[in-house]
Structure formats: C-alpha cells, structure tokens
Amino acid sequence: MSVLSERLKELRLLHQKKQDELADILELSYSAYKRYEYGEREPTASTIIRMAQYFEVSADYLLGLRDEP
Predict the structure, then answer these.
(1) Whole-angstrom distance, CA of residue 64 vs CA of residue 23
(2) Domain boundaries, the chain
(3) How far apart are the C-alpha atoms of 23 and 9, rounded to whole Å?
(4) If you compute the radius of gyration of the chain from its CA atoms, what whole number of angstroms results?
(5) What gap in Å lies between CA 54 and CA 22, rounded to an integer?
(6) Are 62 and 48 in contact (CB under 8 A)?
(7) Assign residue 39 a region: left if phi > 0, alpha if psi is -120 to 50, beta otherwise?
(8) Angle separating helix axes 3-14 and 30-37, nearest 10 degrees
(9) CA distance 24 to 33
(10) Which of 5, 8, 31, 44 is the most core-located residue (most Cβ within 10 A)?
C-alpha cells in the first residue's frame, strides 16, 4: 500500500465517510476512488488537489513528502 492510499483511507475514516460518499464529494466514480485507496491507480494532479482541499491538508502530505498535514 502506498503512502497516498494509506493517508486517503486514514483521512476518510477520520472524516467518517464511506468510500462511495467520498467519491461523490470528490466528483469521482466509486471504482476510481476505491482504486486510489487500494493503491491500484495513481490520481491525476487535479484529483490530488481536490483531495487536499477537501481534507484541508497539503498535497505533499497526501503524497508522503511531508509528515505534517
């Protein structure tokens, strides 16, 4: 599991959202979001930005380049 997928799951659970709920919020299909969280696919830069904005963390944090959100 990649740092991104681990952090996505951690943040999703922290915000008490189901995968399908978060997919809707981020304007993604459920299967696309699920693949990101399972580390099967890498999101585009614009998707990472939407994720970071929703969770109020930096893109660097999501990508594992920083340990502080």
Answers:
(1) 21
(2) 3-63
(3) 12
(4) 11
(5) 10
(6) yes
(7) left
(8) 120
(9) 9
(10) 8
SS3 41: coil
What's the CA gap between 60 and 17, in Å, rounded? 22
Q: Pull the structure tokens for residue 24.
A: 């809707």
Q: Which residues contact 69 (CB under 8 A, 6 or more apart)?
A: 55, 56, 57, 58, 61
Task: Dig out the tokens for 38 from the structure.
Answer: 């399972």
**pTM score, whole prediction:** 0.91
What fold does the segment set 3-63 form as a domain?
434 Repressor (Amino-terminal Domain) (1.10.260)
